[in-house]
Amino acid sequence: KWHPEYGLLIATNKGLFLWKTDGSEPRCILRETGLSAVETTDDGRIFLGNANGEVLETRWGAFTEIKRYLPYKDLTIDKSANRSVIRLYFDPNGSLWVTYFDLGVYWTNFSKNKFNILDRNEKTNQITSVLCENTHELWGLTDHALLKLDRNGAEIERMNLPKSLGASCQMKNFKALLLFKEEAFYLYDKKQKKLQFVGTKPGPNSAFMDVCMMPDGNLLAATYAGLYLYQPKGKGYEATVLDILPRDEGYPNLYLDREGLIYVLKDVTELYVLNYQNGKFSLNGAPIPIRAEIKDWSENPHAIWIASNNGLIRMDKKKRQLLHISREVNLPSPLVTNIVCDKSNGVWLISGGKLAYFDGKQMRLFSKADGVPDLAFNQNNNTLDFDQNLWIASQNGLVQSKINATTAYSGDSKILIKQILINEKLDSTLRCALTGSTLPNEIQKIVIPYHNRNLKFDFSAIEYGDPANNYLEYQVINADTNWIQTPNPGFARLIGLQEGAYYLRIRAYNSDGVRGLETRTIQIIIKPPFERSNVFYLLVIVAISFITAGISRFRREQRLLLQAMRQQIADDLHDEVGSSLTGILMFSATLERMIPIKDRESYYMLQRISANAKKTLGSFRDIIWATNPQYDQVKHLVARMRTVVSEINDTGAILC
């Protein structure tokens, strides 16, 4: 047993060990041999079971103080039975449930609530149906006999059944017991203690499906070929087909309520209500659509409860409205096979082979750990019956329960999310971002685009005491801190939410104003619009990067083009103009040598032409050097400056 404060408790044959979560080795905190089960409570108590069937009680920090209990001390137990306690369970009502390995007794200690197996006959005598009498006696049906039992399960009378009944026979309790199978129908007179033959099936396709006894003693049988009324005639009964409902139709179920109204199911589609007076039948209102295969019936002063393959159904007697009890109240399965109402207007039922109790507000399940027998293969009409206690006909024998199941309930209201609308439309692609579920009631987190900011949540408060007066409240965290009340069923409409995270919280109240234990929370993520999304920002950054790269590339290409133009100009100047100036110098030098020295004026003009040509050629070389992109680097500029300074220095133009 895990304890959140102390660690892991282990019951062993050598004692009780504690294993902490700090990595240390388990240590023995109570030396007691033969321990087989352990349970703890919130108030610090520890309960231990051992191989001798004892229950030990101690406390944290006071392990030397031990109280011992022997739950079965007042019972006669087979000496060969294994008495080991295999499980202890302390329920919220303060009762300790003890489960033994091999004993036929399962109960709770300290509150005297118990399941007690009373009948341990051989397999051929296993009780398949049980009925209660106001005389504090029981009627049990096995595959071979009809038994009359006392409240301790002891057999008082036995009536062997004819072969035409035998296994899978069904039993109905009226002034007399009605026993029937598909082919045969019998009546057992309780006073005369005689089994009387009523009849065989009226036709080849008219097997008996259900029967009841009318107040005047006539018998009504439902078959797959119509309704038949059996009236006493001589020493037997005479069958008459009824014309009030269509013949050759299937009528698998019928029920006679406390007011004398007869409910007849037709073809698993409609439920007819019949009056019966002076041997005549008449319709009582329009048929009720039901769409369910009825397995069993029971009633309390306000309603008729129906076990069906479509769940548990409550029919209001006055309004004749059907209410399907939702699986949100922990109904184990849509298939409910057996049902009986108790005196607290609660309902015991078997669903999916499990025993459950429904008080009109909440469902409580019982398991084998509580001592419930195996019910998976025992689903006759009278598996359950109730007087002051619950009686169960099981393959393990006749079981008596003194469980006060109503103490387990507080009128807790459940919340059912029925649908989620986006922009007033259902979105079949809507999924929970955490679980992937598409069921509205299982959605915990949704992510919505910005253009789908209009949301509507439809929900209900599931609590069947007075469902019309239930109500709900909801709150939207990060949008509105106030709780908003809405009737049942209710809705929450969220319009124009901005981007961000929101939390829709819903809580339900029953008709008495008691808030349910559950507060449902749905996280809503509204994505930002595209122009404010991270994707948009990333695209802008990418676009700017591309533009910047384009401009840089353009400038680089222009710079390379300019360099190419400068290189071309430099080459052209060097080739064309440079060669022309060089030719002028050469021609001037040749003329200087050809003109006589006496012609000083001509000689002087040629010298000036030659000097100007040299000067122009030098300046033009500087222009070509500056134009040529090969000399744009600093090192070439420095070398050029050194050359110029050196030339100036050689001419003596710089004086120190």
Q: How does this structure look, described?
A:
- With 656 residues, this protein is an alpha+beta fold.
- The chain is 16% helix and 41% strand.
- A 7-stranded antiparallel sheet has the order 9-10-11-12-40-39-38, with no helix packed on it. Strands 25, 26, 27, 28 and 29 form a 5-stranded antiparallel sheet that branches.
- It starts with a strand and ends in a 6-residue tail after the last helix.
Figure out the total of helices: 3
Could you give the distance between the termini?
Answer: 109 Å
Strand content: 35-45%
Radius of gyration based on Cα positions: 50 Å
Helix share bin: 10-25%
State mean pLDDT (0 to 100 scale).
Answer: 79
Number of strands: 49
Biggest β-sheet strands, sense, barrel: 7 strands, antiparallel
Tell me the overall shape. Answer: elongated
In brief:
The protein is an alpha+beta fold and 656 residues long. A hairpin with a 3-residue loop joins strand 14 and strand 15.
Topology:
Blueprint: E1 2-3, E2 7-12, E3 15-19, E4 27-30, E5 35-40, E6 45-50, E7 55-59, E8 62-69, E9 85-90, E10 96-100, E11 105-109, E12 114-117, E13 129-132, E14 138-141, E15 145-149, E16 155-160, E17 170-173, E18 177-180, E19 184-189, E20 194-200, E21 208-213, E22 219-223, E23 226-233, E24 236-241, E25 253-256, E26 262-266, E27 270-277, E28 280-283, E29 288-289, E30 294-299, E31 303-308, E32 311-316, E33 322-325, E34 336-341, E35 347-351, E36 354-358, E37 363-366, E38 384-386, E39 390-394, E40 397-401, E41 414-422, E42 425-426, E43 445-448, E44 455-462, E45 471-477, E46 480-487, E47 490-494, E48 500-509, E49 515-526, H1 534-594, H2 600-627, H3 634-650
Parallel strand pairs: 43-49
Antiparallel strand pairs: 1-2, 2-3, 3-4, 5-6, 6-7, 7-8, 9-10, 10-11, 11-12, 12-40, 13-14, 14-15, 15-16, 17-18, 18-19, 19-20, 21-22, 22-23, 23-24, 25-26, 26-27, 27-28, 27-29, 30-31, 31-32, 32-33, 34-35, 35-36, 36-37, 38-39, 39-40, 41-42, 41-44, 44-47, 45-46, 45-48, 48-49
Helix pairs in contact: 1-2
